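Quick one before lunch.
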Amino acid sequence: MRSFVGKRVLAGVSLSTVAALTLTACGGSKIESTDAADSGDCGTFTIAINPWVGYEANAAVIAHVAETELGCKVVKKDLKEEIAWQGFGTGQVDAIVENWGHDDLKKKYIEDQKTAVNAGSTGVEGVIGWYVPPWMAEEYPDITDWNNLNKYASLFKTTESGGKGQLLDGDPSFVTNDEALVKNLGLDYQVVYAGSEPALIQAFRQAEEKKEPVLGYFYDPQWFLSEIELVKVDLPEYQEGCDADPEKVACDYPVYDLDKIVSKSFADANGPAYQLVDNFNWTNEDQNLVARYIAQDNMSPEEAAEKWVEANQDKVEAWLPQS
Amino acid sequence: MATTTMTGSSTRTTPRRRITKPLAVVGLLALWLVAWSLLRGQDMLELPRATLTDLHHWLNDVNDSVGASRNSSPIFLYFFNEIRAVMDALVTFVQGLIAQPAYGRPVPVLGWLGVVALVSYASWVFANWRVALLAAGGFTLFGLQGLWQESMDTLALTLVAVFVSLLFGIPLGILAGVSDRFHRLITPVLDLMQTMPTFVYLAPLTLVFLIGPASATIATLIYAMPPAIRITAHGIRSVPAPPVEATDSFGATRRQRLTKALLPLSKRTIVLGVNQTIMAALAMVTVAALIDAPGLGKTVIKALQTTDVGTAFNAGVAIVVMAIVLDRVTTAASVRAEQGGGDLNPRIRRLLLAGFGLVAAFCSYLSYTYLWASEFPDGGQLGEYLSQGATAVTTWAQQNLADLTAGVKDGVTIMLLNPLEALLAESPWWLMGAVIVLLAALIGNLRAAAVAAVCVGLLVGSGLWNASMITLAMTLVATLLVVTLGVVIGVWMGRSSRVDRVIRPVLDAGQTMPAFVYLIPVVALFSVSRFSAIVAGVVYAAPVAIKIVADGVRAIPESTVEAATAAGSNTWQTITKVQLPMARQSLLLATNQGLIYVLSMVVIGGLVGAGALGYEVVAGFSQGQLYGKGLAAGVAIVVLGIMLDRIARAAAQRSDRAPSANQT
Amino acid sequence: MRTPALHGRAEGAEQRPGGVGIMSTDTAVQPRGQVNDHQTPVISVRNLWKVFGPNADRVPGSAELAALSRRELRERARCTAAVREVSFDVAPGEVFVVMGLSGSGKSTLVRCLTRLIEPTAGEVVFEGEDILRADKRRLRELRRRKFSMVFQHFGLLPYRTVVDNVGYGLEIRGAGRAERIRRATEVIELVGLDGYEHSYPDQLSGGMQQRVGLARALAGDPDVLFFDEPFSALDPLIRRDMQNEVIRLHRQVGKTMVFITHDLSEALKLGDRILLMRDGNVVQAGTGDELVGAPADEYVRDFVQDVPRADVLTLRWIMRPSRDADQLDGPELGPGVIVRDAVRTVLAADRPVRVVENGELLGVVGHAEVLDIVAGNQAGA
Ligand SMILES: Nc1ncnc2c1ncn2[C@@H]1O[C@H](COP(=O)(O)OP(=O)(O)OP(=O)(O)O)[C@@H](O)[C@H]1O
Ligand SMILES: [Mg+2]
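Model of the adenosine-5'-triphosphate complex:
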């Protein structure tokens, strides 16, 4: 019985499919083979894409300019920092276009292996520190001074913090001194590792929405800050060398000059793409704008870059190779 | 906790033991508690986050020297590079067929119409027309979601990884099936492959095989091959003796015995292995995206950067659908392999096969030639709706359920997790180690105790003892939840096939939906906490346990249940006195698999606040100078897994040998 | 060649009337037997041991261990002696039955004969060749050409049709497809399964499946057929059919058969001679009427106690020497006549029936003797 129905169905389907396809096939445009794209003298240019939106903003704008102005064939590779640096040595990555410090990697790849070179600042300044959601800064204005943190420690207690206040640490990609800081500043806090940026963002977002207390490690520029403007807690001011011994740190993080790193061979070839990367320089505001396009306005990085470039032709002009 | 379940089973040993063993276990636990209250906080072997031991430094150095030798060492030049070249070529080839522009064309060789037609046709040829319809629907859905190309990239990578896994896995599995020695040899290797967190070997892989499809494929197949090997071996081993003996009695050679009896008789199980391999490969899609593997995983990771749950969910759904389609098709194919022909008359079937073959070929031709059949037509608004729906649900949930869920989190953490963690992690290491070894001896056997001793040694040696104990506490709580869910829902499903039909797809989704997709909702509901990590583990592990229990309950002969009913048992009695005891093997298996699956989520837990080993692995992946520590943490996870597994197995074996008193 | 294949307690068995030795044959006693005293045995087993467990090799060699009972051995050396020092001969064309309760070692024994299980010690001589010394290739050759086996659980391949199952042995020895089909069709007809050639095993009843097993064993035209409890899984009616089938086939093809069963009536029905095992040992070996008429010990006596004696025993077992008072002019019968067949004659006569063989008067049988047996008097022999 069932097989009978099955047969019927199958036969019907096959007939009607053939009929439908034959009918539709008559229309529609044919596929033409494309000639191999002529990529001018720029050639292929490989950018690593590190996994955060600010980086993506830099990369998207550089890629857009390289493609439209220089005729490069741009390849983007989604990679974590460490793996991207490795790629310099194997010739698989040409450029990293936003680097946060990473003195250890610089030592390993620039000084020791000599596979990478620094290509100057991006013009963006990176700030790392401890932040609270804005409602807390309003409600407890003196909380932004670290000296008062102990006073509020009980506010930050959670199931995870073992009776102390909770200091939420974030993405493990960044060096943190927080355990040492807590100890050396005599704070009644316990560092809890959120483990990922999304977890951290979600924690802050929810804290602001529900007016819950949270104290956490965060950084600027970050697209999330334009959604909720977290307030930084002032730690003892950074002085040159105060973080020399990681065990004894008792001062704030330095301001990072976010720079660009390129592969040695890419720099040596000194092609137009290299010169573009080398010249690339903009501001925190610029990056935040593009990042917002991507993260909040749901644009693709390409669209976001195009929009920004159109509005900022003068800046782009300055990055182009002079010849 | 797990200890009590295991003592429970040891009461079923011979009468002589029945009195002494549980007493000894209780005594041991009591002693431990007393010692703990006196010695609490001493010798905990805590290691500050930023501190590395000599071992960790050494591992860093090893890693660096591997990288440094990549341009000179002959192993690289002639071995790894060759492997990479082959893999790259394979993946690029398949991508060129279905996913990426290739051969000077702006589009792949086969467009969506061709792929949908061929996939459905193949499903029909190897399985039946019902799954063929499912396949057609599923693949069309990818297009409607606006994820056609991403899905095809994922499919290409998965196919290659599965192909290579099977190419090596099935012969190795056969070998492990016929040779005890090889079986013993390869089992720990497979354990290692399955429980070693991928994050640990992702970076070295890109060093050895470079960034690209080769590394992504190899990362995938390291995880996907073990099921193929294990299940093939299991299939060969569980071939019923009589036909094999008959084969021998006719003077078959070893080869004939294999090809004429063992392989045909284990065909169905082997196809099941293929199925599991596909599932495992799909589970790696998102992780492989971290080293630039193309496809749906990338979409998920990108969406995560902007905490865009909706987009991540949309891509997650595509992965789930792909998994379900491939699962159903391979399962149906295995049934067909077992039963031979379908419900159609062979002649008619042949005719229809030929007819549909022509249709499929014609579709392929169209998709080769015409743009409309090649690129999925725009206007697939479905993805948009899915994203918005998911976002809306998440927002609603975190606004309305957060208080409830926070209560659950606090309850479990305070009542269960914190005390257990205090007990495990704050005991001096030597006390804790001794307790583990003694427990292994009491509820298992001396062999298990020896393994446990070695494992304790390794954990101490890894420099991550304290972190291991914290992770152990979470793992035990998660496994407890998994087993509870497994029993409750599994029995429910096992007793009613209607319930089964409704719940099973949900379980499939839980198992294949990438954890990265529900990371944010989980944090929203349970905040950054160890409990969030536990929830992530449960979501992934419970489906397996539930399915195993359900299948176990369903496999109980009708007559047994009937007899119980005839004897006047009520439902509760039937469940507790007949169905659960008879599904005992399944319960054990569910516990074991639940445990392994929970452990494989330890690293994901690290992303939502678990700290401990999971976080160390993530950190090691993210920061070069922590690599050695991350590797050590990965090994510690493997060691924990092996330790728990061997103890549980020994305990199960022991209670197996005893007459099952509970069945009378 | 006349070594009595009796050991242990069987050695001290009671005096058996007629002086029937294990190898002595009496065609009259054996309804279907074609055994001839002077033929060399097809299979000759000497001191065969099979011990499972660690250090199994130690056991047969050590007088101390070998003397232990199975249970003691298990406790002392953690191994099981499934077959212990078994010796017997199988004559050409005979149906040799090995019988015993579950666990007595029958299956192990029969598998040792073709080395499906590797014996621990002893000797298995097949047509003058020690099988235990055969190398792999030779052994395969023997299995392919000389032996076939029928299994309790059939051992059919579920994914093959009846024809392909029956042709399986031929396929393994490398016969071509056409020949396989031809021969398979032939034997399928022989076992009465024609019409089912293209069915799959799971579409057949148990009895039919075992016919397939039987056909498969016959297909290779072996010299010896081994049956391991082939009919235990079948219901009584079908079992009887199948037993008759075996008897018919035996008449038709005349193969030597070694038949394992735990069912005494089956043994008596089929066996020319029966070997009774207990805990791996041989308890007694002999023809059916010997077992019933002269049990070697209490165990055997218990074992055979429910047998309808009249159906098994011959006049030889119940006759008594003639007394002076007897009138020796009654009817005359041979000593091999089964009691049940003689009842009518004996009861009809008003004087004792004379048991005569080759003109010599062996004894007489009167009403009393016959009634004893028929009424189930347990006096025994
Ligand atoms: N592979 C084995 N390993 C250990 N012991 C075995 C093995 N095979 C058989 N035995 C033991 O040898 C003894 C004889 O077993 P066997 O199967 O020969 O008995 P059987 O007479 O055929 O019984 P049944 O009528 O139940 O088939 C049993 O005690 C059994 O436990
Ligand atoms: Mg047997």
